[in-house]
Give the backbone structure.
Amino acid sequence: MRLEERVEKMEKRPRAPYMKPTDISDPNYFHKVVDCQWACPAHTPVPEYIRMIAQQRYTEAYMINWESNVFPGVLGRTCDRPCEPACRRGRIEEKPVAICRLKRVAADHRGDIEHLMPSITPKNGRRVACIGGGPASLTVARDLIPLGYEVVIFDRDSRGGGMMRSQIPAFRLPESVLNEEVDRILNFGAETHFNHDVTSLKNVLDENFDAVFVGTGAPKGRDIDIPGRSEVQDNFHIGIDWLMSVAFEHTSKIGKKVVVLGGGNTAMDCCRTAKRLGGEVVKVIVRSPFDEMKASPWEIEDAQNEDIEILNNHVPEKFLVEDGKLTGIVFQKVKPEYDETGRRKLVPTGDAPVIVPCDDVLCAIGQENHFPWIERDIGLEFDEWDMPVVDRTTFQSTNPKVFFGGDAAFGPENIIWAVAHGHQAAISIDQFCQSKDINQRPAPDVTLISQKMGMHEWSYHNDISNEERYAVPHAEKMSALKDIKLEVELGFDEKMAFEEAMRCLNCDIQTVFDDVKCIECDACVDICPVDCINFIKNGEETDVRSRLRVPALDEDQSLYVSDMLPTGRVMVKDEDVCLHCGLCAERCPTAAWDMSQFLLKEGQAKNQRQVA
Amino acid sequence: MSYIAKPKFHHPNLPRNELGLTRRDYEGAMSTLCAGCGHDSVSAAIVEACFELNLPAHKLAKMSGIGCSSKTPTYFLSKSHGFNSVHGRMPSVATGANLANNELKYIGVSGDGDTASIGFGQFAHAVRRQVDMLYIVENNGTYGLTKGQFSATNDRVSLGRKGQKNAFDSIDLAAIAIQLGASFVGRGFSGDKEQLVPMIKAALSHKGFAFIDVISPCVTFNNHNGSTKSFEFFRDNERSITATDYIAPRETITADYKEGSVIDVTLHDSSTVRLRKLDANYDPSDSAAALQHIMKHEELGEVATGLLYLNVEDTELKEKMDIVNVPLNSLGVTELRPDSNKLESINKSLR
């Protein structure tokens, strides 16, 4: 039958009674298939930059990152990597692609980028204050300065960078890397007021700024209230304050026996820093079971590699003090018990208390927001937890001129979230300053382009590597422990970076199905290495999921459903473990399958401008 | 053809059979046939059937001749034995192999040229002798390897790609097989695995000559308007006479069918073939009726599919010839070299 006849026949068919054909023109559909990009708060187009790295196009890879996440060099070392648990590779074999460390490769190997920086349009006369000079504020500055805004940054520290400088030790993030990425933004022409502690928001507002962005983080480390606490003032340190004091070189030594309380990433940074400042026996002691520690697994691993012992299920009971000096801490041993709802309760095991001798204790049991400097009578509402009421989309507070972002908005997160908030706040501020509706958000920039080059040739590399994840080489331990500024991770070299990049499954190269062309020959079903393509009778979604060649159990993963085909069936593709190898398209005699690159760039303030 | 190998990764939840193997473990090398070739689907159906039957690959031999179809044994069961013979001579080699070692299961894969033209005589005698094997013809009505001439199974009314008329009547291999005494005859379609896979499973469990004529469209030379072996024509004109269910030996048989609508036949390995009659008057054990049925549909321009004829009473080649029932390579000196008394008695009997 000729194509026109088939089209006509298809149009006359009854519509599918159950699952509707997937609307691939909705950018969210294919975006969700790119698991890493979907999981990234800043929606960095991960597979695209990994492909650039494989082609040794490091500068382009860096710029893709810089556009989305502003601090590729910093994040390539310190990101919490929400992309990696989401990585499809982790569902077909043991470990995901080392996305974060590939990002660092782009930063390490890139060429000059000065000429790629946005041009700065003449000043538009609007002034925006950024309180706090951390990642969120710097992102706001980066997005707004090129549009002509005058951005004024206030920070209590002597340099910009916020917690990236004060809380992340130099052996994880070299100062030169941080300075370069921070200074690049400041050099756009931000007006900076360092060593300037803002003590009143009202005063800032009185200075006639058009908008104020609050990116002051979660600067208050949590204290612990157990017997003996008041007597150990000299040997007790709040983790983040102590790290800051080390970063600004006010502190350079610590006792031989150190206990770190807490199980998060700050605790890991504290213990490793202590080890470098003279701590000989450094122990991390945590209330929760080991598996439930908040720290990222790789940071725990790095700490353990430096001979730091981690004791779990130990609850601190009291400090032991002799002659006004800390000598140890008493712990009660507990075990977790879970009720029907899965809520955890730590109950004492009944064992004898454990005494851990120590000279210094670092307390890293959490951090909080702290807004004593915001007056409560300036139209800015606070909620029952004493947090500002902030809109989740626009980041605007109840005072329309004041916007929040980063940890200051909704409590402690990590750098990549601060960047994402900064982008969104910049959009809102730009709209607000032009008296436009701030709920009007710029649409993402989306393209879907066929990768077909020939009969069975694609412009992407579909022959993926079977190798396991490569480990990043580390500096030799003895020398690393002697020098607090010596970076421990050495990063991938070009060869390893290439090998690791080839593990990427190219999830942005989408399988696009055209039901009009399909002759239902089954060739795609037969060739698919992961059995994700099916031709079956339509039904309700749960029913369809259960009837696939391999049932689709993960409901977070979409099903791609076609319109009804001539035999009365529909094509159903489970996106879950698709390798994006393109074999379905290679074995298709009618090109009903095509491999198309889906590239989504999240809307930013500049995009809104182009539309307007 | 694709230039890359099929990735090794498989679905983490891919089912495993009793041998602990997945469907992927029964695959072969990457196919070099045209994209969309029906033959690749037949290979996939064989893979599926062997996986579901829990067959150990090393207990199987793939036999073939020459042609697109005959290349396919490379693309499935890479861990099985195989013999790629001269054009049309696969039946002889299969007969010999079968006599030498009947512990292996034999799958012969052939095409319409290999079977209905150059190997027609060979085919006839393998059927007549009831060689214990599954003989699959991947039937596309065209000589694809030599660029699309009509084959002997191309229907009289079926036009060539450029509208050429066919001067000759076609050979219906399924009908011929029934006439020549095959004990298991079916017809399937590469685009319908629901029908084909159970039929292959039943055929592999059957003792004797099992023949399946699989209409397997040639997407390059014979899938156009006017062809009677195109995906579309076949889908519109095939008439399933029986639906086959294969029930493994230890599986419980549940019967929830109307009286008379189902026929259960127990095979030699005590598995069961359940035939659901889609045509109420059909009797798959009556060869004359089966032939009549096939011809009746042919007159209407239709193609009868499903398990068309099944006879579990007939014996296979080795039994007919009273040949020792173990692989010949397992026979020792005592079995192969008669002692002098025996020789003496043989000589005596000849005097």
